[in-house]
Design goal:
The complex is a heterodimer. Chain A contains seven helices and 25 strands. By secondary structure, chain A is mainly β. Chain A has a domain at 120-277: Oxidoreductase, molybdopterin-binding domain (Sulfite Oxidase, Chain A, domain 2), CATH 3.90.420. In chain A, the strands form six sheets. Chain A has a five-stranded mixed sheet. The relative contact order of chain A is 0.17. Chain B is mainly alpha-helical. Chain B has two domains: 3-31, no CATH class; 55-166, Cytochrome Bc1 Complex, Chain D, domain 2, CATH 1.10.760.10. In chain B, strands 2-3 form a two-stranded antiparallel ribbon. Classes of the chains: A mainly beta, B mainly alpha. Chains A and B meet through strand 6, strand 7, helix 4, strand 10 and helix 5 of A and helix 1, strand 1, helix 5 and strand 4 of B.
Chain lengths: 430, 177
């Protein structure tokens, strides 16, 4: 294996080394300590192999051994404030998020909606106001698309002036990716007949806050849909059952859940969440209003804090990248804190506005290393360096110790994980 | 054209163009009058569109506030288990500055809209329109944005000039209608 090409500092290999290295390399790969192989010994049957297994349930759930693979909750008792459920990116793989692990933010819990009584109304600046039942929507031509949804406040701990010690789940757990199936909103708006004076729509949920957000008509007619299915099944209650607005690539809060009303208007509503919550303050005291896009971003999930490395040797560095502006074009990975870079392999298919899994083989020599990724999208946008990002958007004056705090929104700079000689992974800035 | 053939044409259009728009209305929506939507139509626009009849003063709002709001937001809006509704540091204090009615909110109509649709937390949309006008007036008065005797109604509320009204910029101006 001496001929394997090291392409960047601290042992990053060519992205196709796993293919060219063949079986010898694959056999040399060690896992993280969570799944370290044990020394080979004489094999015997385990108890589960010597008797029939348990009955298969009607609705399958993961093995009891997978209990740690769960969301972390900011408000498990549902007290009168916002609830956050964060995706455990370090404990899953691939590109889409199982429904039970999809992130949720709800500002007043999840309403228990009877789908037979739910209605979606489209009105305001239209020729013919319309009301739709779920059954009626189910008769329209459907489309499916893989799309990430990300909270505008995801990664907010990265605004801290010192690195917050927390897992990738705590820092970046408010983004997930699913296959959404539903009706193109343009189909429904065409039927209602758009008044040419309409420039915005206000979408509103059936939750107790009647949460509302304003969306430009151009985006509504581009790729916005009324989503009815999530990864093949009906939406989870926390994700908007029985229907939500899906505004691909745009700020999560705009993807209004429990959607019950769409009003076409000639101005934005300046609702609470767009006028106040998701309007980040800039260092000069001005604030961005209507940020809309979740810009190109990537972070490494494996390894990351909590996934302690075992013996030195081969590991796969992998993570996810995504952009509101289309497909991911390239991801570069560094193991020396950004001095040198290796191009990562991108898992096919690479889809627009969806998670792209990137992977790089890495030969860890057991010494200190700093892993970092940067992504480029097909529109030419580049994930900024931390220095570039902080120069534009600022950082806190004092360290953020609570990773669930939201000092600002829309962080898309890089994330750096330091590997200690012990194999432990910590969060650093680099 | 029958509905069935319209579906076939739509389906073909999808195959060819991915997620492009359909051009044939399916006609499965039920027409509804704006009068029948009225109970759900609680959107208040910054120019005052949607504001209902009614009015209220800061003094009236103080009484309602004490009985229905202070339990979470504290006495005189000073904050409690829920956010403070009075005061606020200059936005140049840092990116993490707490956003308040006085230092941040661009439009007074947002106070009316959010209070009516979402408050009080355990029983949203239970306030009368007069109560919402009065609470809006009280909060604006507490923050010295209007006078303590000013009446808020559909005419006066949209004319209130919020201190930070001009403090915003679009992140992607090309995306703004």
């Amino acid at each position: 294996m001496n001929d394997l090409e090291i392409v960047a500092g601290n042992g990053l290999l060519h992205r196709r080394a796993f293919l060219t290295g063949g079986a010898a390399l694959a056999a040399a790969v060690t896992g993280y300590r969570l799944s370290d192989t044990v020394a080979a010994q004489q094999l015997t049957d385990e108890a589960w192999s010597t008797k029939p297994g348990v009955a298969i349930p009607e609705y399958g759930i993961p093995s009891s051994f997978e209990k740690p693979v769960s969301r972390t909750l900011s408000n498990p008792k549902g007290e009168p404030r916002t609830q956050h459920a964060r995706t455990p990116h370090h404990l899953v793989n691939g590109t889409f998020t199982p429904n039970g692990l999809h992130f949720v933010i709800s500002h007043s819990g999840a309403p228990d909606i009877d789908p037979a009584k739910h209605r979606l109304v489209i009105h305001g600046l239209v020729k013919k106001p319309l009301s739709f039942t779920l059954d009626a929507l189910g008769r329209y031509p459907m489309v499916s698309r893989m799309t990430f949804v990300e909270c505008g406040g995801n990664s907010a701990a990265m605004f801290s002036n010192q690195p917050t010690q927390a897992s990738v789940q705590a820092i970046h757990g408010l983004v997930s990716c699913a296959e959404w199936t539903g009706v193109m909103l343009s189909t429904l708006l065409d039927e209602a007949g758009i008044d040419p004076k309409a420039t915005w729509l206000i979408a509103e949920g059936a939750d107790s806050l009647a949460l509302s957000r304003s969306v430009p008509i151009a985006k509504a007619l581009d790729d916005t849909m009324v989503a009815l299915y999530q990864n093949g099944e009906r939406l989870n209650p926390g994700n908007g059952y029985p229907m939500r607005l899906l505004v691909p690539g745009w700020e999560g809060n705009l993807n209004v859940k429990w959607l019950r009303r769409i009003k076409l208007t000639d101005q934005p509503g300046l609702s609470y969440y767009e006028a106040r919550t998701y309007a980040p303050i800039l260092p000069n005291g001005k604030a961005y209003q209507f940020y809309f896009l979740q810009e190109v971003k990537s972070f490494i999930t494996h390894p990351s804090p909590g996934l302690t490395l075992g013996a030195p040797g081969f590991y796969e560095v992998s993570g996810i990248a995504y952009s509101a502006s289309g497909r991911i074009a390239k991801v570069m990975v560094s193991a020396d804190g950004g001095s040198t870079w290796a191009q990562a392999a991108l898992q096919e298919p690479v889809l627009s506005k969806a998670f792209t899994r990137f992977r790089v083989p890495w030969k860890w020599d057991g010494g200190p290393a700093v892993l970092q990724s940067r992504a480029w999208d097909e529109a030419g946008n580049v994930q900024p360096t931390r220095a570039q990002f902080v120069a534009q958007r600022g950082q806190t004056k004092t360290p953020v110790t609570n990773p669930a705090a939201f000092p600002s929104q829309h962080y898309n700079g890089p994330t750096s994980w330091a590997i200690q000689r012990t194999g432990e992974v910590t969060h650093v800035y680099s | 054209m029958s509905t069935r053939s319209a579906f076939v044409i739509c389906a073909l259009a999808y195959v060819v163009s991915g997620v492009s728009r359909t051009v044939i209305a399916q006609g499965l929506g039920t027409p509804i009058s704006e009068a029948d939507v009225a109970a759900w139509d609680i959107s208040i626009l910054p120019d005052g569109t949607g504001l209902p009849a009614g009015s209220g003063t800061p003094q009236q709002g103080a009484a309602t506030y004490a009985t229905k709001c202070a339990v979470c937001h504290g006495e005189a809006g000073k904050g409690g288990s829920a956010a403070a509704l009075v005061g606020g540091a200059p936005l140049t204090s840092g990116i993490e500055t707490t956003k308040t009615i006085a230092n941040f909110w661009p439009s007074a109509t947002t106070i009316f809209d959010f209070t009516r649709r979402a408050m009080p937390w355990p029983k949203p949309r239970s306030l009368t329109n007069d109560e919402v006008y009065a609470l809006t007036a009280y909060l604006l008065s507490l923050n010295k944005i209007i006078g303590e005797n000013d009446v808020m109604n559909a005419q006066t509320l949209p004319k209130v000039r919020m201190p930070n009204r001009d403090g915003f910029i679009a992140r992607f101006p090309e995306r703004m209608p």
